[in-house]
Amino acid sequence: MTATTHTTGAPLSTALRSSAELIRAEAETVAHNYHPLPVVVARAEGTWVEDVEGRRYLDMLAGYSALNFGHRHPALIAAARHQLDQVTLTSRAFHNDRLAGFAEALADLTGLDMTLPMNTGAEAVESALKIARKWAYEVKGVAPDQATIVVAAGNFHGRTTTIVSFSDDPVARTGFGPFTPGFRTVPYDDLAALEAAIDDTTAAVLIEPIQGEAGVRIPADGYLAGVRELTHRAGVLFIADEIQSGLGRTGTTLAVAHEDVLPDLLLLGKALGGGIVPVSAVVGRRDVMSVLRPGEHGSTFGGNPLAAAVGSAVVDLLRTGEFQEHARTLGAVLADGLAGLVGRGVLRYRSRGLWAGVDVDPAIGTGREISERLLTEGILVKDTHGSTIRIAPPLTITREELDSAIGALGKVLGA
Ligand SMILES: *Cc1c(COP(=O)(O)O)cnc(C)c1O
Predict the structure, then answer these.
(1) Is residue 156 annotated as a catalytic residue, yes or no?
(2) Domain count within the chain
(3) pLDDT tens for residues 238-264?
(4) pLDDT digit string (tens) for 89-101?
(5) Pocket test for ligand 1, best of 157, 169, 207, 276 (most atoms within 8 A of CB)
(6) Is 241 a catalytic residue?
(7) Of 303, 319, 335, which residue sits at a domain end?
(8) pLDDT score of 3 more than 60
(9) Candidate list 189, 241, 264, 359, residue with the active-site label
(10) Which of 74, 208, 356, 394 minimizes the number of CB atoms within 10 Å of its CB?
C-alpha cells in the first residue's frame, strides 16, 4: 500500500499526530453531535486508558456501562479472537453455530425464554415496541393502529425518530419532528399515574429500572414490584430497559432483581457486547416473542457469530456472580466516599452498586467543568444534565483505584 499524501506533502497517517491536532481534525470532519472531553484515547486495558501522548487515565465512565468488564477483558478478547478465525457473519439467511448457544445462555441468565438478537440499544428498544404493538393487536385484540405504550418522564431509550418521539428532553427532540404517535408519558416513580394512564389500548409499559441519563434516578422501594403487579393485573406487557442498568452494574445481574421481579420483555445492550462489538437483545416470554414471524422484522448483523460469541462470553463472566458481588462491595465503598463529600461540594448523590449520579454544588462548577478538572487529575467521568456527574467505573475496578477517584473528586471540589 502506498502512503497517501495531501497537498502539503505530509503523510495522512494518524501516527505521530498529537492529541491537539486530532481534536482539530475531528472538529473539521466529524459531525458535532457530541462534545467530547479533550482527551484522545489511543490504548486501554482494564480500568485504564492511555492517550496519544502516553498520559494515563482511570476510566470512571466505562462507556456508559458498555465496558462493565473493563477494556479488553482477556476472556472476551480471547472469545472474539477465536471467533474471528472461524466465521464472523452469515446473515440470518442461514443458521450459524453460535446463535443458539447465545440465546440459551441469555435464557439461563435471565429466566426468560427467547431472544431477538439486534445490535444497538436503540434497535432493541424499537424491536420491543414493535413486538408489543403486534402482541396488542394479535393477542389482546386492540383495534388496528390504536395501540398505546406508556413511558416515564425523564426517560432515555436511544436516538431514533420513534424513540425521541417519547423523550421529554428538548435537546433530543427539537428539530426532529414529526414524531411517532402512540405514547403516553407519566411521571417516573409514580404508580398511581401509571395506573391512570393504562386503558384498553395499552400494549405495554416501558421503564428503565433506574434512569441513567436522568442522573441515576432510583425509584422508591416497591415501584418495580408495583409496575409488575399493575401491568400483570391490567394485561399489558412490562418492558424493562436494562441496557445501562443490567449485566452486573447495580450489584445484581439485572436491576429488576432488587425487587425480585421479571419483566415480560427485557432489553439488553451496551455491556452485552463486552466493549468489543455492538450487541443488543430483546429477551422475552415465549408467547410474546412468538408474535414475530419470518420476514416481519430483521437485522443484517443481528445475531452474527462474532456478536454471539462475544455475548456468550459476557454471559459466562456473569455466571459465577463475582462481578455482581464486587459491584455490591465496592458500591458500598463508593456510596461511603460520596456521603463523605455531601456538604463539601456535593449537594446529594444517588447510587446503587457501582453506579452513581452526583449533584455538584453549581457554585463550584458545572458538571462539565468538574469533569474537565477531573480529567487533569487523570480521572475520566462525564456530566449529565446540568451539575450532575455520572460515575460508572468498570466492575473490575480495585478498592485502591476507587479510593483514588473519590479522593480526586474531593480535591477538585475543594473539599
Ligand atoms: C444507551 C441506552 C440506550 C441506547 O443504546 P444505543 O446502543 O446507544 O442505541 C437505550 N436505553 C438505555 C437505558 C440506554 O442507556
Answers:
(1) yes
(2) 2
(3) 999 999 999 999 999 999 999 999 999
(4) 999 999 999 999 9
(5) 157
(6) yes
(7) 319
(8) no
(9) 241
(10) 74
pLDDT digits (tens, 9 = 90+) for 181-234: 999 999 999 999 999 999 999 999 999 999 999 999 999 999 999 999 999 999
Which amino acid is present at 196?
A: A
Residue 94 is a catalytic residue = no
**Cβ atoms within 10 Å of 353's Cβ, excluding its own:** 27
In a domain, 3, yes or no: no
Beta bridge partners of 148: 202
CATH number of domain containing 251: 3.40.640.10
**Structural domain harbouring 154:** 74-319
Kindly give the distance from the C-alpha atom of residue 260 to the centroid of ligand 1, in angstroms, as a whole number: 23
pTM of the model: 0.96
- The whole-chain average pLDDT of the chain stands at 96
Asked if the structure places residue 1 within a domain, the reply is: no
135 and 239 share a domain? yes
Who lines ligand 1 at CB under 6 A? 64, 120-122, 125, 156-158, 208, 212, 241, 243-244, 269-270
Which among 61, 67, 68, 243 is the best mutation to test ligand 1's pocket, defined by most ligand atoms within 8 Å of the CB? 243
